[in-house]
Amino acid sequence: xxxxxxxxxxxxxxxxxxxxxxxxxxxxxxxxxxxxxxxxxxxxxxxxxxxxxxxxxxxxxxxxxxxxxxxxxxxxxxxxxxxxxxxxxxxxxxxxxxxxxxxxxxxxxxxxxxxxxxxxxxxxxxxxxxxxxxxxxxxxxxxxxxxxxxxxxxxxxxxxxxxxxxxxxxxxxxxxxxxxxxxxxxxxxxxxxxxxxxxxxxxxxxxxxxxxxxxxxxxxxxx
Length: 223
Fold this sequence. Notes:
By secondary structure, this protein is an alpha/beta fold. The chain has helices at 24-39, 61-66, 71-87, 103-109, 127-130, 136-145, 148-157, 163-168, 181-190, 198-207, 209-215; strands at 3-7, 10-14, 45-49, 54-56, 91-96, 99-101, 113-117, 123-124, 160-161, 174-176. The chain is built from eleven helices and ten strands. Strands 1-2-3-5-7-10 form a six-stranded mixed β-sheet, with helices on both faces.
């Protein structure tokens, strides 16, 4: 399960040591951690990372197929996680130490910055291959963070990007060695801790207003 630690003014949220799929309990634990970060006072920033082979493999499809009657409510909860991260009133950095797929990749895009391991691991939106269309909120999030050509390729071809390719495409801001992923993310976050607060939250909310509206559409989240 996710765990939250603090290094001076930088919160570090470890998403776990498995595939870190979006089980409802996992979503609730991440939400609690974001509550703590959001309510804290003073200079602060947030880094998310994980331990092991995966940053996140996205939706918990096994749970979803076993609870098909909760499909819409589940998607609403995933959208709310993305919206909360987009609008969190602190600078956020995703430290992608392992595979980052599907909704896990979208979660990384909800952060302000991304650092990825250069030598191993992939960032991928495989929805076209697994026959799961992007929701309107997901599409809006992806297209708000990536340039049109990269979004087109990533969404339509399910290309797997290694760290260097992801950096070249603008998906991540830095591609570094395995041992430097977390420390580089913390360094980026630490340089921005003074930005935390209501003004930053307002800037984000206005900059990404249409994205947040799409993600918070509880009446028709599936399109």
